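no rush on this but wanted to send it before i forget. theres a chain ive been looking at and ive put its sequence and its fold in token form underneath. i want to understand how the tokens follow from the sequence so walk me through it. thanks a lot i owe you, the record is right below:
>
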Amino acid sequence: MTDTLQQSAPAGATARWRAAAAATGAADRVAAERAVRAAYRAAGLPEPAEVRWFDSPFAAVRAALALRAEGAVGVREEIRTRPWGQVRARVHARLGAPGWAELWALTGGDLWTQNQALAGRIRGAVLDELAPEADPDDDTEVRSRARAARTAVRVALLDAVLGQHDAPWLAAFDAAGELDGAELAPLADAARQTGWWWPYEQVALIAERPTELHRDEAGRLDRADGPALAWADGSALHAWRGMPVPADFLDGLGGLTAERIREEENAELRRVMLEHYGYDRYLAESGAEPLHRDETGVLWRIVLPDDEPVVMVEVVNSTAEPDGTFRTYWLRVPPSTRTARAGVAWTFGVPEEEYRPERET
């Protein structure tokens, strides 16, 4: 990857597939079905006799479970896995191990973490809705049925081609100039139009993309006033800064009190409450006492039941705002922090004894 074209290709491919992965709204169903049928032909398989559309992966998995119960055979291996492996091997042979590693780092690697987290959240939500875990107090037979149901859903999920969420691999193959080839062109065309789809011998199931996707600056699912990820049939995932939360949980954030936060038994939800409420406000209203103070700031600790304490350094920006005031910041630091200086030093990635700024900003 030394010439100008090769050096510029990864950025463009990554941008294109980042946009495809985040796309929402109804597909061009004619174009999507054409691509899916072409993917069957490219794999040497007869086209499906029927293509069925669903408004969400939740609905599509229900249909996949029914097909599997009737003996339907999935052909994901032929349609997606085998050509994927062939093209990857060809690109790897052409570029060599260092060249492939560089290509992946600039394309798929750049998209992988965020994309896989999103796909994982969808899988988890589908699994929990269609096959909830048994209660520990349930008898052996009930627990056994629950395990079997969850296994069936996991298998149905493995039958899926991820469409737009195959973006990391498609970005790498795009930058390598491989998406025009017969093996991957239909898969790329489908991914530009669809969410997940399930190829079986006689039937293809296609799920529409989400209708809404809300993320924070770090790319995590995040929304305080509704679902962070939603589909046309009402299926939805709710999250606050990446943390899964119940749908009705967000409705109560507006009326939070310090007492309500202390009473929350779920440690993860309590952290969400604290972030929304504001650590500084919670400290003030709960009568917390500082652990330590020095010229760098003030160290505070919030003790929480059944959870590690929240330790924060309160620092004041030495640069005045346009109106002449000085902004206060709250920096969360490890629970083991014992001094304000150590906490501030930790945020810069240096030991306390090495933190000697000439001018703090």
